Amino acid sequence: MAPDAGIAPSEDIKVEAEEHWAKKGDVDLFVFRKYSKEVPSNGKVLFIVHGSSNSARTSCDLTVPGGSEYSMMNTFARLGYDVWTMDHEGYGKSSKTDSFSYIADAVDDLKAAMPIVEKETGKSQFCFYGGSSGALREGMFQHACPEKVERMIMASFPYTGKDAPSLIKRTKRLAEWQATNTRKVDEAYYLDMFTRDTTGLTAPELPAAAAAAEMAHGGGLVPNGTYVDMCINLPVLEPEKIKCPVLILRGDHDGITTDADMMEFYDKLGTGDRHMVMMSGQAHNITVGVNRHRFWYLVHNFLQFPGRIDNTQE
Fold this sequence. Notes:
Shape: globular
Number of helices: 11
CATH class: Alpha Beta
CATH architecture: 3-Layer(aba) Sandwich
CATH superfamily: Alpha/Beta hydrolase fold, catalytic domain
Low-confidence stretches: none
Largest sheet: 8 strands, mixed
Mean pLDDT: 94
Strand order of the largest sheet: 1-2-4-3-5-6-9-10
Strand content: 15-25%
Radius of gyration: 18 Å
Structural class: alpha/beta
Order of helices and strands: EEEHHEHEHEHHEHHEHEHEH
CATH topology: Rossmann fold
Helix content: 25-40%
Distance between the termini: 50 Å
Number of strands: 10
């Protein structure tokens, strides 16, 4: 980890892990939790929503042999958060079906998981983080269940997708994504994913580690629905409907969106508590970049940002 590690907690703090299962009709959905008994709870539940090309634990609980801490779940558990995630239908340990697992399908996945999180935490409202299509998934869930969402962090996502270099390139392969509900992810795929925006912002051992994790968690196949949606069905969110505090994070080398697209989304948000942060030295894969400690710092400080006080006597 870089010397200026910000809020990075000691890796000696033990983290507990739990596996849970939710049902969505006949579909089994894997739900995963991490927390620490060795630090005081800060009272916040953080639910991490994964993106298009990784299952949940590859996205936010990655182990890199011989490397420093890459797990967002471990980091935030050691900061006192109760951290949750899940594999959406067709990903990871969840049921493999013929579904394309479109962005909208994640709403029912998250609805199925929420009773488990409520039962285990005793809370009914949670903070959400989503990156890339995970941000679109959490946004659609917020539209459907605003009462469940306390705060939102949305990173590396397209709003309309207009002029986004990565989406322009991806659309050229649209027929391929539409022809089958899954695609293969392996070391070569992750190497391209980690370097498509620029080089030098992720560690060279990451592609092999991500590929090994995906094989262990889900067999190396992921659904194509979010790729199709981001090519031809944007926008899927209505920012005016989002009334809770929002933090938008954008790396300076992220080709999945543009500054103009993000500012349009920001301007339309239905909340006065809105923050947008541009980060240098970050590409699309913001959670596992060499500057991930800066990402952790921003997320933690936003989640601890004091709530507003209203003077009801006036």
